[in-house]
Design goal:
about 450 residues; alpha/beta; 5-stranded parallel β-sheet; 12 helices; about 30% helix; globular
Length: about 450
């Protein structure tokens, strides 16, 4: 027996297909757009061919990302014809129009209202948006047990390799009450892990002068340490991403040591050589950074540190690169990613007058970097064998489930493969005895 649609629910609601490219910050933008459209009665579909329109949320940070975005737009046009473009590459609308003059609309990042208006122009909303078609926490593109929480937009830093401030503007923080209300809804809906993101998480609230906002019957400050403490009180894992090593970041290590937030810090260091960091317009005293890392680990022995680095930056010499490898050997970071430098149109690095690093040399340094860090990672993970770790399950299996420890963020870090006699479901947090390790992953049995 089939249910008849109500008067407020048309038999054939308009369908929207969605492509979300780029970083987790862009994913949050996509979730906001999708939530709004779903509230208005649009249906989401995975098929471009069967959709009434396609939205492509683009990435425009690197040339390779722009190429991926243009390819996604082209594929959507081939399969559908009605394509709405938004996201970071939307700030370069002339490039998109030159390649695909027939896209319906192009908007830049965070232009939620413009995207929705473009959808309305393509196909009218089916009913009044006050009809409740979405859960309180909104529509999420991540699995149900974890969610990204974006606490600010934009960035006040002016790194020479980056055009994010030009694409997304200067720092604009959300009020603490607004962030916490969103987080409360997510946890109430069953989210077990909150991943805090922004372009510069440690700068949160600076633009607001750390102003208080009203949450229930009390006031909360828009300050990094206050927000971390408040989020940690909600009962979910709280993971901090994109944290520049400002002096006040030391304060959050105490929250990690006491278990309020996860002992995990994602710090984009980018390099270690003072001359390269100066050219990048980044903090350049890595000796002090090493001292701070030692102090952090003394205060919180289980602290996991992740970072990303760029090899092949203009002017990088072999001596600079060897300095980076030596620094990594001393820092012994738990999780490390690397990128080969790509020139970005409009970035200040293009005008530094520094000699470019040949592509084959950048590739060779990248391989050496990854091999060097692989040895460090393997040694650090081997030390975890025999220990019992809490693991959040991401994927069920007949005999072995796939999960992550407190030291692992989804998609970018390692995994824990968990053998279990009982069924384990996504979102379960289980105690696991670690029995072996390789260069990136752990293997164990549920206790």
């Amino acid at each position: 027996m089939t249910r008849e649609p109500s008067a407020a629910e048309p038999a054939n609601p308009p369908k929207i297909s969605f492509v979300s490219l780029g970083c987790p910050k862009a994913l949050v933008d996509s979730e906001r757009i999708i939530t709004r459209l779903r509230a208005e009665g649009y249906e989401l579909t995975r098929s471009h061919a069967g959709a009434d329109a396609v939205i492509v949320n683009t990435c425009g940070f690197l040339d390779s990302a722009k190429a991926e975005s243009l390819a996604a737009i082209g594929a959507a046009l081939d399969e559908n014809g009605k394509v709405i473009v938004t996201g970071c590459m939307g700030a370069e609308s002339e490039t998109i129009r030159a390649a695909y003059p027939h896209v319906l609309s192009i908007t830049g990042p965070q232009a939620y209202e413009s995207v929705v208006n473009a959808v309305h122009a393509a196909i009218a909303p089916p009913h009044d948006p006050f009809v409740d078609l979405v859960p309180a926490q909104g529509i999420k593109l991540t699995p149900r047990h974890y969610a990204y929480v974006k606490i600010s937009e934009g960035c006040n830093n002016r790194c020479s390799f980056c055009i994010i401030p030009r694409l997304r503007g200067d720092l604009v923080s959300r009020s603490a009450a607004d962030v916490l209300r969103e987080a409360e809804k997510l946890v109430a809906a069953g989210v077990k892990e909150l991943l805090v993101i922004s372009q510069d998480t440690g700068a949160y609230g600076l633009d607001l002068r750390y102003a208080e906002s009203t949450l229930g019957d009390r006031q909360v400050r828009a300050k990094f340490i206050d927000l971390a403490r408040e989020l940690g009180s909600l009962g979910a894992w709280v993971r901090l991403h994109y944290v520049y090593p400002y002096p006040h970041i030391d304060e959050v290590i105490g929250l990690m040591a006491e278990g309020t937030v996860l002992p995990y810090l994602d710090i984009p260091l980018q390099h270690a050589s003072p001359s390269v960091l100066k050219a990048m317009r980044r903090p350049g005293d890595q000796e002090k950074t090493l001292d701070r890392i030692k102090a952090w680990r003394a205060a919180c022995p289980d602290l996991a540190l992740r970072s990303t680095f760029i090899v092949g930056f203009p002017g990088e010499t072999e001596a600079d690169f060897e300095f980076l490898l030596a620094w990594l050997s001393e820092a012994r970071l738990d999780r490390v990613g690397a990128f080969k430098y790509e020139p970005v149109a409009g970035a200040a690095a293009n005008d530094l007058g520094l000699p470019p690093v040949a592509a084959e040399i950048a590739e060779e340094r990248y391989r050496r970097f990854m091999q060097h860090q692989q040895t460090i990672s393997a040694n650090l993970l081997k030390r975890k064998t025999g220990r019992h770790l809490h693991v959040i399950i991401d994927k069920a299996g007949t005999t072995v489930a796939e999960g992550r420890s407190k030291a692992d963020a989804p998609e970018i870090d390692g995994k824990v493969y968990v053998a279990s006699r009982r069924p384990l479901r996504p979102g379960d947090i289980v105690l696991v005895k670690i029995e072996r390790a390789d260069a990136y992953d752990l293997y164990g049995t549920a206790a």
